[in-house]
Amino acid sequence: MKIEERVVKYLDDDLTLEERAAFEKELKSSEELKRVLENFTGVKEKINRQKNLKLSSDYANSILFDFHKKAGYRKKETLRKSLSYAFGLILLILIGISVQKIFFNNLVNNSVDLEKFTQALDENQKLDLLESLNNSNDLSDIISDEEYVDLLEKNLIVNENILENYDIGYKDLIGNLSDNEVNKIYNELISKNILKEVPL
Amino acid sequence: MNYNSDDYELVKDFLSGNQQAFNNLARKYQEKIYWHARRIVGDHDDAHDVVQQVLLVMYNKLSSFNFSSLLYTWIFKITYTRSLNQLKKRKLKRIVTFNFSDDIENIGYENVIDNLENKEEIVRMEKILNKLPLKQREVFVMRNFDELAYEEISKITGRSIGTLKTNYFHAFKKIKELMDNNED
Q1: B114 and A39: CB-CB below 8 Å?
Q2: DSSP letter assigned to residue A194
Q3: Is the separation of the CB atoms in B37 and B83 below 8 Å?
């Protein structure tokens, strides 16, 4: 056993009784052993001074407070998310039904109106109409900008709770991952040499 | 250090619905959890996160704890795993935020520690610990600061006692070298 290893084991109280006795006997005669022991003892003392660090009472009290606050928030968040999804689903179904109803009503009404309108046109007018429809590539030909924005505003009513869930930040990307997910991504990044492993 | 004197009673009380018993358990172990995490992850915010995660696991999983091991060994195992995971998350965070620096800002001591006479020494030690390979850092922290026996560290980390002793020796030697260089 090398001298440093023996010294570390001595300070760590990891020598057998015989080894310890031999070490202490040698210490009386070996200057080198004494010097190495003093060096490591100095380091050990510096380390020991840091054993007595205490958390401030303010911070210590805040740990449990924070835990219970988050635990309450987690319960509310789960409920809020469940409700958001439920409302979102109901909203989507209602929008779907409304769109279908409006679309088919308009289709029926428009087809009646268009039928009357086209019957009133002569052949030249019909050709002009077809030509103008063919040349119309832009929505702005049919509807003004104001009408377009107005139409969007009226129809784009979004559930803010759902929108909030799409506000993706770092916490959403990493913070909410499970341990298995973190390990999977981490190992994948290491296997692709994108990430260096935490030195083990 | 006798951690186990009233753990059994506290766990039993908590499982029978006494929330105060959980608070007492949390107060009993939160400081140990914090310092272990802080010395492993080297950063106050991450250590705080680890403490919160460990308390949450305790809260949710104490019902499955059957006292086949000591409660504090179980808590240290959770803390060890969560700290390791926090280091991995930090690596992933650096990728997401395009921050590839390994520097850790040693902030947050002022409001966290009571006896702050040797702030510089604390910061220096933290920097030195962060320079150790993780396996060496873990065993050194558990042995020196958490005062765990090699048998307990072996149960927590799943490594053999012989390997742990080797890691400890190399950690101690490297810390001495780093301290010597720092003083030059």
Answers
A1: no
A2: S
A3: yes
Q: What is the residue-wise DSSP string for A2-44?
A: -HHHHHHHHHTT-S-HHHHHHHHHHHHH-HHHHHHHHHHHHHH
Does the predicted TM-score (pTM) go above 0.80? no
Query: How far apart are alpha carbons A143 and A79 in whole angstroms?
Result: 43
Exposed/middle/buried for B71, CB within 10 Å: 0-12, 13-18, 19+? buried
Burial class (CB in 10 A: 0-12, 13-18, 19+), A64: middle
Q: A44 vs A5, A41, A82, A93, CA distance in Å?
A: 14, 5, 54, 69
Q: Which residues are A55's β-sheet partners?
A: B113
CB contacts of A1 in chain B (<8 Å) are none
Touching check for B55 and chain A: CB below 8 Å?
Answer: yes
Distance CA B80, CA B156 (A): 8
Read off the pLDDT of residues B58-89 as tens digits, 9 standing for 90 and up: 999 999 888 888 899 999 999 999 999 999 98
CB B122 within 8 A of CB B107: no
Element spanning A160, H or E: helix A160-165
- Locate B14 and state its tokens: 């908590």
Contact A4, A35 (CB under 8 A): no
For B115, the closest of A52, A67, A185 (CB atoms) is A52
Helix (H, G, I), strand (E, B) or coil at A147: helix
Token pair 């050990």: residue: A44
Distance CA B166, CA A28 (A): 27
pLDDT (tens digit per residue) in A24-83 = 999 999 999 999 999 999 999 988 888 878 888 889 999 999 998 887 766 665 666 666
Chain B residues whose CB is inside 8 A of the A35 CB are none
Burial, B74: exposed, middle or buried (Cβ in 10 Å; 0-12, 13-18, 19+)? buried
B69 Cα to chain A: minimum distance (Å): 23
